[in-house]
Design goal:
The chain has about 375 residues and is α+β, with helices and mostly antiparallel strands. The protein is built from 10 helices and 12 strands.
């Protein structure tokens, strides 16, 4: 534990409660800096040393403002500004805020003032220091999401605006066939906007852990069959699809709409980005959830070029695209979120025919009264 004594009259263990719990301050994920009543550092854990690039041995015994020379975003010295050992005796600390270390590195800092009695002098100043990199990654991800959505919305909305404005201004000049073509285009673009909004709502629910699963009995084989029939009706050759069902399959309880969403995305990826036969295998499998014996596994594979090895670990992240053939790059991220919300797992690999292979496994998910 990075705890040392200073020249102060009283040198104490700054994290006695942690010691009683058997926790070393160096095991804490955030930086912990503790100063005594004289303003000298008596604890400087490993995370604080990593974040500030100052070895603990150099920080211990120093004045707090020297060991941790923080400035606010306007360049003002933080400890002089807040005066932790003076000011109002009812103060309990400082809320989390962004501050700067020497060199301009940004950190998140929270401060607590410890007093032996409510309005007595400050006996300890406890400082929590956190790196902002994780928050910056989240902010960058949100910025990318906004940019992607803006880009994806601009095209269909421009089309909708253009066609409707043209029809309103020059309705009598067009034939019925021309009007129908324009309205069909507007309808298709409106569907595209609706799908994008639905994706955004799904991402919001997945990120916040609020994606609801309404379990019902699902015939997974029939669900796959419906998707294949839809593609054939749209012009795909029937012999491009191969559905193999291994019987008997366990009774599957899942959200039928969300299972359809997963199947739609995976089969569409195989049709759009793959080549050759699209094979869908539905088999019983070991349940991915502890306490259940059986589950249902669905494997979708094609005979295309497949996914490069270096991209395998990015397939289920936001904005990953297997090719430049359109799409927002959000579909597989949502698929993974839906599968995991069911307590399932999903993997990607290379098929025997050389193409991409996606496999997801769902627990049977039967209600307790049927177990």
């Amino acid at each position: 534990m990075s705890v040392g004594t200073s020249s102060a009259p009283e040198a104490v263990q700054p994290a006695g409660d942690l010691a009683e719990l058997g926790i070393d301050p160096d095991d804490l994920p955030d930086g912990l800096v503790v100063a005594d009543e004289h303003g000298r550092v008596i604890c400087f854990n490993a995370a604080a040393a990593r974040i500030t690039s100052l070895p603990a041995r150099e920080a211990l015994g120093q004045r707090l403002e020297k060991a941790l020379p923080l400035e606010d975003l306007e360049g003002r010295r933080w400890w002089q500004l807040t005066n932790p050992y003076g000011g109002l005796a009812i103060r309990v600390g400082q809320p989390e805020r962004n501050l700067l270390l020497p060199g301009g590195r940004e950190v998140l800092v929270t401060v607590r003032y410890v007093r032996t009695e409510p309005t007595g002098p400050v006996r300890r100043v406890v400082v929590s220091v956190r790196d902002t990199e994780a928050r910056r990654r989240t902010e960058r991800s949100h910025a990318e999401l906004i940019a992607t959505v803006a880009h994806e919305l601009r095209s269909p909305l421009t089309s909708v605006k253009g066609f409707t404005a043209t029809l309103l201004a020059k309705w009598a000049r067009f034939t019925d066939d021309q009007k129908r073509l324009m309205l069909e285009t507007v309808d298709a673009d409106a569907d595209r906007v609706t799908r994008l909004i639905a994706e955004l709502l799904d991402i919001s629910r997945i990120d916040s852990g609020r994606l609801e699963v309404r379990r019902q009995p699902v015939d997974i084989g029939a669900a796959v069959g419906r998707h294949i029939q839809a593609y054939v009706a749209a012009g795909q050759p029937a012999d491009r699809f191969l559905l193999r069902l291994e019987q008997p399959l366990p009774a599957l309880w899942a959200d039928p709409d969300k299972v359809d969403q997963v199947l739609s995305n995976l089969i569409e990826n195989a049709v759009r980005h793959g080549e050759g036969t699209v094979t869908i295998d539905v088999t019983p499998a070991a349940s991915p959830r502890e306490g259940e014996d059986t589950g249902t596994s669905v494997t979708v594979s094609d005979e295309g070029a497949g996914i490069p090895e270096e991209s395998m670990n990015r397939v289920f992240t936001r904005f990953w695209r297997g090719s430049k053939r359109g799409g927002t790059g959000l579909g597989l991220y949502i698929v993974k979120g839906i599968v995991e919300a069911h307590g399932g797992t999903i993997t990607v690999g290379r098929a025997l025919g050389g193409g991409a292979e996606f496999r997801f496994t769902l627990p049977v998910g039967a209600p307790a009264y049927l177990a």
